[in-house]
Specification:
This protein has helices at about 15-25, 55-60, 75-85, 100, 105-110, 135-145, 165-190, 200, 210-215, 250-260, 275-290, 295-300, 315-320, 320-325, and strands spanning about 5-10, 30-35, 50, 55, 65-70, 90, 115-120, 190-195, 235-240, 245-250, 310, 330-335, 340-345. By secondary structure, the protein is an alpha/beta fold. A hairpin with a 5-residue loop joins strand 9 and strand 10. About 30% of the residues are buried.
Length: about 375
Amino acid sequence: MPLKSIRVLDLTRLLPGPYCTMLLADFGADVIKVEQPGLGDYARFIGAKVGESSAFFNSLNRNKQSVTLDLKTKAGKTQILEMIEEADVLIESFRPGVMEKLGLDYETLKLKNPGLIYCAITGYGQTGPYKDLPGHDLNYLSYAGLLDLMGKSDGDPVVPGTTIADIAGGALPATIGILMSLIYRKETGEGQFVDIGMMDGVIPLLQTLLPDFLASGNSPKRGSQLLDGGHANYNVYETKDERFLAVGAVEEKFWVNFCETICRPDLITLLNAPLHQQHQIKADIQNVIITKTLAEWVKEFADVEACVSPVNTLEEMVEDPQVIARNMIETIFDESLGQVKQIGIPIKLSKTPGKIRSLAPRLNHVY
């Protein structure tokens, strides 16, 4: 496996850090999860259980080992310092300054291991006026301007159905930063500090809107853009059975096919109509879509290239033939729990694929 020679000490908990180290572990990294004695990662107790820990925890911490250490004690510090000497990567998610108070900050640890790659994931990064503030995913989205753009033009901002900043703004940039640092170390022998602020990571997600604003100064309004539901050709419509159909007919060829399939060829020339006309076009399309069930519309568009799809429930998603073909829901065997379903690995490598080798470790499992 591509990361089989890499050892990672994971001092994080909950979602961003564990997701990052899960990706590394899936591709062979030896990830040792360091948890607080007696309590461990809070994620162990969130949601439905799989064995002793939650399904949420098991998903994020598969393929890892575990050790419990109290970093506030002399014995705990001594042991982690010994482990640092053989580690390639350390990742933590404490607020800025916490590791320094423990005597485990990067400047201290690099003296023991100059090749160490030290990654810190925090809400706002290690610098700036917000660096010491507490926060959660919604706060990072709101400060970054993304939350204000989510929702309908005549409604309030909409809370997303999953955590965007934690994963796309934190875990993924951290993973990329660690991998780039490993490449640099291979060339120079030097480690480095990877500073990941989740608010920072959200701002680049605005690639379809922010560059135009920076160039023109014209601020986009919620629900008025092509890709946020402001236009009829990129929207969601309710069906007769109170389900929903997603339409992503951005290009003209797909829009033509869509309009012809719903028997409204008169709408073809209105693809790029002004916003005030788009509202009427959406209403006209809704009046058509509501006349048939979701299954009927899926059948109508089965052989039509129009970028039209059903809005799946989770029950439907896990049975979707594309999900099955891509192995995005895997079933693994655990000696004590039997068959356990896990989210699959999204990165497909032809020669060195990732693999789910084990469920998450128990809290008191000794490394």
